[in-house]
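Researcher: Good morning. I'm working through a list of sequences from a screen, and I'd like to move beyond sequence-only analysis. For each chain I'm collecting a predicted structure so we can compare shapes side by side. This is the next one on the list. No need for commentary yet; just the structure.
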Amino acid sequence: MSGTSEGPRASAGTAPGAPAAPVTERHTTAPAENGPARTDSARTDSTRTDSVRTGPAGGDPGSAASELRDYRAAFNAATLPMGVVDGRGHVVRANEALGGLLGTPAAVLAGRQACELLDLAGDDRTWHAYREVLLGRRSRFRCTRRLKHPDGRSLWAEITVVPMTGASAAESARVLLTVADVSDRRELQERLRHLQMHDPVTRLPNRTLFFERLASALETPPYQDDSLPSRQHARIGLCYLDLDGFKAINDTLGHRTGDRLLAAVAARLTDCAENDASRNAGGNRLVARLGGDEFAILVEDSAGTQELTDLARSVLAALQQPFDLAGQRLSVSASIGVVERTAAGTSPTGLMQAADTTLYWAKADGRARWTLFDPERNAHRMTRQSLSSTLRPAVERGEFTLEYQPLVGMADGVLRGVEALVRWNHPQFGVLPPNRFVQIAEEDGSIVQLGRWVLRTACRQARRWQLDHPDEPPLFISVNVAVRQVWDSDLVADVAQILAETELAPGLLQLELTESAVMGSGGRPLRALQALSDMGVRIAIDDFGTGYSNLAYLSRLPVSVLKLDGAFVKGFRYEDGTHPSPADETIVEAMVQLAHRLGLTVTAECVETAGQAERLRRIGCDTGQGWLYSRAVAPEQIAGLIGSRPLEG
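Model: Good morning. Structure tokens for this chain:
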């Protein structure tokens, strides 16, 4: 028997199951005229009061006896099951309705423990509240219990216990116990709850019930046997899936067809979960529709990652089979995020965040696949998110610095210019190179603000070197520009203003754009590049040879410099035993010759050995950049290289 009640347990009172003492009472009626008093042996009456028993002062004894008989008759005839219980918890009197409810004659119930008959000791809170009423410390107690009738059927009963008034000081306090059959009401409540907790289209548990079950699975130990593994080692798994392209089906075939498809998908998911349960003994499986075309399969007490990945594979295989819906044959696929971990220390929110992230990975990786949660990948994502949220304020706080890598003439090894490379002195992650945050800045638009700061700082530094070394040829400064800076800001006006502020000659500024950005230029970007070139600023294509490599663009773009991607230069290595690539050398030689015929200069990136430098020099590269000459260094070190001997490794 089970149910709900109120209050914590107390130790006071007679424990359930204690032997019942005989309950009798000597009742003396008012003496008849000229006759002796009559003594009856009778059980106490639950509704009798002192005024009824002894009669009101100066009242008619016959009237009191008649009133007592009326109370007893009403008690016995009442359709509401009732009983009188003494202070020790024994039934003193029960009416026929209570006997009928419990399937036992009312007379047989006398002397029985009420808590045993009605399962009032089934849990601590109910037992304590019941005993408090028996001891006179509480005015009322009500609970709902599930009772089993002797004929085998179950019923829900609402039990109310209230103290009876009017008992004499010589008698033990009694309480009136009433029992109402609320099975119909309970069934209605359960039906309403089922409707509230289930999706009307698929009949699956909805989002509310799913999270209720998830919270319960993470809070309630699945093991009750001490010989089995402890809660500390319990595990939980989740397959979170989303149908690929479901919106297109809704838009083209209508929501009615879409709903039929969702119901069919739900049936296949349920089959997959049941098959998994038959293969792997353990906890429950719950299939739920979380909304739209999103479903989840919760595996309580999972056997490990392998079980979850096998389940994900079976789901994909099941959904890949065509669906026949009212004469229409449809095919769908799904992306699934799989999470499996220990239940200890896991929260519903944390598990769902991990599942949602993994589902996003599955879609980003190509859809129609499952992806397992990867803590390292997630840590990278979290770091990336942290960088994104703090990037804009970091520019304002001055957390960025510039380092400069020399650009050296291949023919004489003399320093010709430098490339400005931005670094982020992050307070948490340390010094971050550009590849850790530039893409983020491009995505959220902060590259415009950051790029403007880099351009101004680099030009100011180039002008300072020029003023500090008036007898040496001035160095040109090369600054990377993202294509979004061309689209989202007035780059031409920014450059003109910064050159005017710093008094740096336009010919000493070189702007680098990647090949993929430049080769697709048209309209506004192309006009901006042309205006910058007309101003005297040099335009360089960075990483040339790895993007579109559409040579036709070179004839109409205002490009001054091609920077060969380091992947080609690596094919020139001899010193470390690496076999050189004749194809790379041929490609580089052809690109250099083409560039020179178009009036462009060529810079080779990633020059690391003297052998590479020598071959690039023979091919005709104009400038080189790489660790052979120097890594990116602080501006003070660049100042020491100006006018010094050739930078040869």
